[in-house]
Amino acid sequence: MPRFASPADVAAYGEYRVVRDDRPLYRFAGRLGSGDFPAEAGRYHLYAGWFCPWAQRCVIEIGLHGLEDVISVSYVDNDRDARGWAFRETYGPDPVNGFALLREAYEATEPGFDGHVSVPTLWDRQTGRIVSNDFAGIGVDIATRFAEFSNGANTYPAALRDQIEELDGWLGAAVNRGAGAAAADPAARAALLDAFAELDARLAKSRYLLGSRLTEADVRLWVTLVRYDAGPNAERTINPGLPEYPHLWAYARELYQIPAFGRSTDFASFSRPGATVPDWDVVVERSYAA
User: Fold this and answer.
1) What is the mean pLDDT of residues 72-90?
2) pLDDT by residue (tens digit) across 174-196?
3) Given this model, what pLDDT does residue 283 score?
4) Smaller CB count within 10 Å for the chain: N or C?
5) Residue 166 gets which letter from DSSP?
6) CA-to-CA distance for 163 and 74, rounded, in angstroms?
7) φ and ψ at residue 33, rounded to 5 degrees
8) Mean pLDDT of all residues in 88-109
């Protein structure tokens, strides 16, 4: 019989709290392709959450590189209490270890674990431990370490890595982390809307953020764009919506048509109650001046 956690119950267990101290928030940071964790088909499993943009980045990279049969994926439930993320009937049991709580994977790796239990979490079947819960490192490793199993895609090419990380230094602060703060923080709102305007101008001249090639930079940006009007801007307290930026909006919808993006998106998992979500299903014919 599959093991499931009981329903999330904040009254009984309390709210989940992130303990921050001098240790890294994402405590496990093993790298695929290293001596400890060689790139092998069927060895690794990604614990993800439909609601989580950081987990979706990794799932998108798996899809873009055709690695669905190489790295397996399962999903935790959307709700949590103090016990952390859990496996419930909504998305099925843990197919690898039969855990009811994701915390069990952390305790199996580090007995007495007292840190942050997060998704994505990458698990190694062979050693029976967590490789990493560092979402940035997981995404890059998926994009670069499985070439022999891949369909030939390369979203983190060596020649563009500096530019990808430079963009992340800007967009990570202004958009990925700034969107959630923008409704209540005028400075964050100004930085976010300035970034949207600059991105709109950039995408009037370029198919993707770095030219004609889809890269990890696009993946990192897109997971926030798809959540923007359903989540942080659900009540339109930041601006009238992403369609205010025609080139950025067309770019975002074009990416949504790519199966790796669209199939990994579950609007119900991150939409706020009563949110009006723009129509992402319209097929977009983009034009841009090179």
Assistant:
1) 98
2) 999 999 999 999 999 999 999 99
3) 76
4) N
5) H
6) 32
7) 90, -5
8) 98
Q: How many CB atoms lie within 10 A of CB 270?
A: 21
Name 269's Cβ contacts closer than 8 Å, sequence gap at least 6: 49, 50, 51, 78
pLDDT tens profile 258-269: 999 999 999 999
Nearest one of 29, 64, 278, 26 to 152, comparing CA atoms: 64
Q: How many Cβ atoms are within 10 Å of 14's Cβ, its own excluded?
A: 11
- In this structure, the number of other CB atoms found within 10 A of the CB of residue 186 comes to 8
Long-range contacts of 9-12 (CB under 8 A, 24+ apart): 9/81, 10/81, 10/82, 12/81
Tell me which amino acid residue 255 is.
L
pLDDT of residue 1: 85
Rounded CA separation 242/228 (Å): 8
As given in the structure block, the two tokens for residue 207 are: 């198919």
Query: CA 74 to CA 50: how far, in whole Å?
Result: 10
Q: What's the average model confidence in pLDDT over 145-173? A: 98
> Do residues 99 and 17 touch, judged by C-beta distance below 8 A?
no
Domains of the chain: 10-149 (3.40.30.10), 158-270 (1.20.1050.10)
What is the model's pLDDT at position 290?
61
Q: How far, in Å, CA of 52 to CA of 67, rounded?
A: 20
- Which residues make Cβ contacts (< 8 Å) with residue 242, sequence separation at least 6? 196, 225, 228, 229, 233, 248, 249, 252, 278
Gap between the Cα atoms of 126 and 106, Å rounded: 16
* Cβ count near 169 (within 10 Å): 9
